[in-house]
Amino acid sequence: MASQYAPRSRNVTPIPASVAASRVDSGYGSSVASGSTTDGDHLPRTILDPTHQHSDQTRQWTSHVHQLAYNQNRIALGRSVNRAVDTLKDFQRMNSKQPVNYPTVEVYEPQPSLNRTQTFADDYNNLPGPSNRPQIPRRAVTSIDLEGQQAEPLVAPKISEDFNVLKLDLKLGGHGPSALVHTLEKSSVAALLDGKINQSIKHLLALRERIEDTSSKVLVTGDVNAGKSTFCNALMRRRVLPEDQQPCTSAFCEVLDCQLNNDLEEVHAIREGVTYDRHDESSYDVYTLEQLEDLVVDNDEYHQVKVYVNDVRPLSESFLRNGVVDIALIDAPGLNTDSIKTTSVFARQEEIDVVVYVVAAENHFTLSAKEFIENAAKEKAYIFIVVNRFDNIRPKGRDKCQKAILEQIEAASPQTFREAEELVHFVSSNAVVEGQDIQKLRDFENLEQNLRSFVLEKRARSKLAPAKTYLMNLLKDIETLAFVNKEVAAAQLERIRKELDEISPAFERLTNARQEVSDDCDKTTDSVANEVYKFSRNTISKTIEHLDDRPVVPYAGILDAFGYAEATKQAMLQHVQSSVTTSEDYARQKTTEGVSSISARGILHLGDEYIQKAFRPESMFSRKRDALNKMVKIELDVTDFIDWDFASTQEKQIAGAGMSLTLATMAGSQLFGVGSWVDGLWKVGNLLGFRNAKKLILPVVLVATVGTGYYILQDLPNAVPRKLAKKIRKSLADLDYVHINADRIAQQCRKVLKFPTEDLRAAFQRGIEKQEKAVKERKQTQKDCDVADKYFGNLLRNAKQQRAAVSSLDLEPHTILEGQQEEQQQTMTELEQQQQQQQENPLFIS
Ligand SMILES: Nc1nc2c(ncn2[C@@H]2O[C@H](COP(=O)(O)OP(=O)(O)OP(=O)(O)O)[C@@H](O)[C@H]2O)c(=O)[nH]1
């Protein structure tokens, strides 16, 4: 600790009130307990007669009435703050469950020809309903997702610009906040809003604390060197705070009545991060008033000092010791000293009740001054403005200067401007020090009286107005959000109802059609397979049956008998094979028709949802072409050249042609059958007699042999096909060739038709699942919208009620004139009764 301002020990003797008056004179004129007085060198401290408005008694009455009214408003505002906190927490819960829609402005005007998604703005403007509904301008609700998609921005006036407390801060690039909102996901906007609500809850709690705090905090701020410290000193008529031409105040100096510190005049210096507790000496270092300059000039050790001073002026004049309320006069470091201090001044203004902005007349308002005033005015509504160092403006230029500064004030805080007579003062604080210029002193005392009245009599306004203004702004924002969200929910409900009206029957139709179509596909498959089976069976059977109907290959003579037989066999097998091929071709054609019929059903019921696959019939039956040659193994033998069965048939046909021929026939036809042969001879012997028969045997045998040989040779071209056909038939019959092939072809058709059938079933399943999902999603959304509709309806009503209640609070002080005491007495009694009632039952007041 630097020795020059080492904390002093606490054995400071309290200043007796009797001597305080003489001690406090620090060049501002002596302080006396009475009102207006003149003492030699010193100019009168009170030029304005304090009794010109109220008698002491009236002032007392007034004070009392104000106090009661203040308490009543304080309690009512406290309740409103609690309700607003509950409402915000509830809103936050809702936002976390279902992201709240945040309206915003649009960036461009879409051309009428542009195809665009319908947005909330369309919904809202097309909504049926009474024409007297709130006329919210056309807007885009870009964070609103009516169909699960980002809505497109539309032309809209600046509804989001209207937001005050819950306005989302998106200071990015060159875009305005609202232009950026629509580029964000709905969930991101909800998260931002959640943060904003948190901030607002925190602020409301701070406001509640401020309302409950019985003291009034007056922050004196302004640009560097504007004369803030000089102004504070002038208010106390004491040189307490250091004044310098160089920027000097580096810590917040809070000047308080030393009555709050057991009448001890001293300085409590608080380090960064430490929470001050007057009763806990470890939370601060103690210094004397004389050491103050060292503490606040170019000293970064302490960020805040509490200066307890004795203000010995009478209650009617004293600013700090006024008999109504404890006042803390906070001299802040100048704005623009450095960015950190500027920021902390900005932050500090949230916890104070009155802002006194000091500006140097010759400098006007800087940019940060304007920003500060605009910001503070949003919540405080009124800013007390001291245009200091007015003596530095030449008399000729004063009107011009006043005009220019008032114009700046009008732009930054119109409300303050409207009450400029009370709230804007052109003074020279150092005139109080010099005490030469009566006009300047009058100006300052006029300021002082207005400031006292602003802080004391209008305490309700100065201390409670910030809470009222904030609540009004917040509730207005909540109303806007509730209104927008209710409208969106209602529009969504209507849209979903329409969509469900369309989807539900389509969904039922599809579900019913699924089984029917599936059965139809099976029927088609069965019918194709059966038809193909029948056709194949007929075709192949007939081919096999008629294999030997006509010579199959040309006969080149006995010498090529074997070649002829082999070629005949191959040709026949080929013929059979062809019948199989014909059947397969037929199957291809039928299968193609079947596939088309199945696909047609898919398109009919599923439309674009059904993806038709290309069918290539040529790839059917590609592997079974040479199957027959492998299956049928037919070896040629000698019997394949002689057809005895056929010869015996022929015998019967030519029996009557002559005996020799009969014999020859008999011999030829039964050459190798001994039983038949003997039988034949017996028959012939009987016919001719034994002797004749004996003579005839040789020639007959010869004739028979020649005849037989001749016949065989003659019949060979026909016998071979017959015999081979027979053989092949038998072989194919043994193999069950006809059935196997017909069945194979039919089964192949079944197999092929199974693909489009399964595809179609899968497409149906997908379609049904999709629709089921769509119905389910919409029903869920419908449920959510229903909840939202009710929630936001209630929220809108509540916010309106709350706002009406807050708005009805009259914070304006009412001047009580002499002769009105009786009336006021009655008012006071009523107020006191109400207050007592409130204390007994805080929930209900009449
Ligand atoms: N002419 C004139 N000078 C003044 C007036 N008020 C203050 N000054 C002078 O202006 C200079 C700065 O005054 P301060 O009170 O230290 O100003 P400040 O705004 O507290 O300065 P910082 O705390 O450093 O920002 C001092 O030299 C004062 O004497 C005034 O009304 N007229």
Which molecules are bound besides the chains? guanosine-5'-triphosphate
CATH topology of the largest domain: Rossmann fold
Q: How many structural domains can be distinguished in the coordinates? A: 3
How much helical structure, as a percent, in the residues? 55-70%
- The level-1 CATH class of the largest domain: Alpha Beta
Low-confidence runs (pLDDT<50, min 5 residues)? 1-5, 9-54, 105-158, 172-177, 654-675, 842-846
Largest sheet: 9 strands, mixed
How many beta-strand runs?
Answer: 9
| Strand composition percent | 5-15%
By secondary-structure content and strand pairing, the structural class works out as mainly alpha
**Gyration radius from CA atoms, angstroms:** 58 Å
How many individual helices?
23
For the termini, the CA-CA separation is 59 Å
What overall geometry do the principal axes of the alpha carbons give? rod-shaped
Strand arrangement across the biggest beta sheet = 4-3-5-2-6-1-7-8-9
**Superfamily (CATH H level) name of the largest domain:** P-loop containing nucleotide triphosphate hydrolases
